[in-house]
Amino acid sequence: MPLPAATQWELMAAAAKPLRLALEELIRQAAQGRVMHNDDTSMRILRLIREPDDKRTGTFTSGIVSLVGPWTIALFFTGRQHAGENIAEVLKQRAHGLPAPIQMCDALSRNTPKGVETLVANCLAHGRRQVVEVVDHFPEECRYMLETLGGVYHNDAVSRERELSPEDRLHFHQEHSGPLMKALHEWMEAQFAEHKTEPNSGLGKAISYLLNHWSKLTLFLRQPGSPIDNNIVERSLKKAILNRRNALFYRTLNGAGVGDLFMSLIHTCELNGANPFDYLTELQRHAEELKRNPSEWMPWNYRETLARLTRPAAA
Question: How does pLDDT run across 255-272, given as a tens digit for each residue?
Answer without folding.
Answer: 999 999 999 999 999 999
